[in-house]
């Protein structure tokens, strides 16, 4: 024991003497010389860089904060951590205490982190500031991996963690400007508690997740990273609740824009320019706040003398150049009357997805019973479900009854009383037109004189049910336009009844779906390959995908569209190759003229001759590619684009 203490004391004296008598510059040089023979490499990440905040330092702090709590339980990891929470975040944040170390494993490579902090003092020994930095140590042979993969991984992960943990804010307009005092959105609604038919809920969540993960896709196709939704249906069907669930699911701020409080297009532009990224812009009851109604209905501006926001101004704000000033944004419009909205607002790019929120079904009632009463079943359920299937009652009305008591039986009996009252009113005032199984659902989401969407299907908003035009014809039990009847006959003969497994049961809906398929075939039948464009074909392909989602057997049509798109790309490729070939031939011709000159030296002539030979070889390769592509395209030029699809 005495010898050990003696050795330690000697080492301490030597270290102190070394530091006192050897200048710092020499000590630094000696340490750097020793480190040359070490296989370890260290990166220093300071809090500031070039006089400003170091983004990598902040990302490292966020990233390591998500690791330290689980890692601290392991042997050899720090037992001292920092913890804190501000009003701007949802959860506690953890971090390393000063001079603590932690090891992160990335791609099976151990990477050692150390957090350091020193207090800076002035000549009077007064504390002036604090210097903080991280040291990242690893083996030298992993430098490239750390630089190209690990550090970008830290930055991306830190951004996701920060976005996920921040509090959602709710912004409103005050005097044509966003209020400076946004409030925390503590709305408890989530997709878990939202009473919505299962397939529709799943479709919306998948669409949101696809959008949030689609940054590179939007960049690739050259579109602004934004998405528009139209929520329409009767009052009390959950439009506001769905918006709150979307905000909580994405952790996006909500900007609530009341257009009636905006006096000019320029004020509207200012407001939209100051909407942050990762946000949802909500314009509720768009058919009521300003008169942006269908222009076919006439000019009703006399009823709204003080409104200055124009339809043109709104269109430019949400889909013009102004919309490029921001990323990762969602715009949600709501209305009770879809048919009152101008078609220019309804098109894709402005309202990309139309979501019908209709009256309650047995499914939504059961979800509400679980949420409000905590019960999965009751002997009164069957009676309630039967009445709900026959009348129109909104989820808000059902929720109102279920909140009146904590006793399930009392609430359900009160609900039955409400439903029976509504049924009695419906009987005394029968609806015009034919009754049917789908009457209730159609009434909730029907647009005057036009389209309805089926919310029971996975892509309910993507399929538009067409109204059969004049002179319809019936093929088997399906009624379609007369011009499409021969195509439908040929399809049924070739492929059988392609709607047998369709998830929609009514003959009218199935007829509409068949019209869509036959309409696509009609366009292909009348067109030549050079007449079609890739966006047009992609649109057809999207419609076919929607038909497949409703379980129509149209894979044969999708396959043909894929082949035509591929052929169109070959045509473009051939054109590009022909242009390359023309340029090379032109260059060869110029070089041959130079070779004919008697002023060129022999060595230069040899070089140009060799270059010409190389270019001629390239032309040969290009010609072979063109010939190969043209051979593949011959079947599309010589025959109809629907050859083999129909039994004629």
TrEMBL record:
GO terms for molecular function: ATP binding; ATP hydrolysis activity. Residues 423-432 have a biased composition (Basic and acidic residues). Residues 423-463 are annotated as: Disordered. Residues 225-361 form the AAA+ ATPase domain. GO terms for biological process: response to stress. It comes from Gossypium mustelinum (Cotton). This is AAA+ ATPase domain-containing protein. Residues 448-463 have a biased composition (Polar residues). Belongs to the AAA ATPase family. BCS1 subfamily. SUPFAM superfamilies: P-loop containing nucleoside triphosphate hydrolases (SSF52540). Its cofactor is Mg(2+). Keywords: ATP-binding, Hydrolase, Magnesium, Nucleotide-binding. It catalyses: ATP + H2O = ADP + phosphate + H(+).
